[in-house]
Amino acid sequence: MNTSVLVIVLLAVAGCSRDNGPPAQAASAPAGPPTIDVVKVVEQPVDVTLSMPAELAAYQEVAIYPRATGFVKSIVVDRGSQVRTGQVLATLEAPELLAQRSEAQSKLQGAEAQLAAVRSKADANASTYEKLKAASATPGVVAGNDLVLAEKAVEADASQITAAQQSVEAARQALTSVREMEGYLTVTAPFDGVIIERNIHPGALVGPSSGPGASTPMLRLVQERRLRLVVPVPEAYVAGVSRGTVMPFSVDAYPGQTFSGTVARIARAVNVQTRTMAVELDVNNADGRLSPGTFCQVRWPVRRSGPSLLVPSGSIASTTDRTFVVRVRDGRTEWVDVNTGLTAGPLVEVFGALRSGDEVAARGTDEIPAGTEVHAKQAKPPAS
Q: Among the CATH numbers 1.20.1540.10, 3.90.1070.20, 2.40.30.170, 2.40.30.10, which is that of 51-59+223-302?
């Protein structure tokens, strides 16, 4: 019995000795450089489509004020009314204009009567001068001084006729002005559109934008059959924008539907506060489905003039003071500062001291110090 126990103990000790042998040998083996996955920097054209917010605006919009001060006699439109160019929107009344017209007519008649009297006197003086001139052919019949006086009277009459004619013209223009002012009492539409605001009712006192009753406009008219789509484009994406480009956009009111507009106007100046440039697209809204003031999402194409360098988004590392990728060259790591640009699927456009074909860590991190000796292993390219 004691012999069996002794054999079992010896076998157990021998087994433990064999199990502990390999770890001791592994611990004594030197550790190699760490292995990291790397990907290659690729160079290819960048052609992406971004979603940018935009706003629809009326192609034309005007706040309608009367040109003359008066009281509203009638108004024939309201909010939502469709109007045509020249259509009467409202009529005003101003009794003082009637008095001004009567006064202007009276002044014109007086000026015309004065002109007639001057012309009659001039005709008489001209006839006298001609008779004296004929009689002066016989010596001693007419005194020379009388002929001179008659001639001067004719010249004076010509000046008086000119002055009277100018008075008549001034009186006629004054009457025309009053009549035009009376025409201002009829307010018409300057273009086709829809009334979106009405602030008056019959009996209200209204006037020009700087006169009495002008705190708010009478009406506000917009042209909605043609719209402006205003897109504030960030300055990084303004290159390559050209007139005539057709761009699709969507609105929340019609989910799943796509509309389109054509680039028509480019500001050519960046707003220093928002760092964006306003680009306007013309939108045909003949069916009236879209409304001014609506927010939209525009699918804005961005194309670079030449190929760009791209790396997977995971290769880019950032700290509080720099953005970089970890490049592996000759078995050692180095940090390369980069600026990022557009995102094309899983790849990100980068700008820095990189070249196509450079190997960078698939996972960028500041945990890999620059100058670390590593073993590079090609990783699978990211799926597009």
A: 2.40.30.170
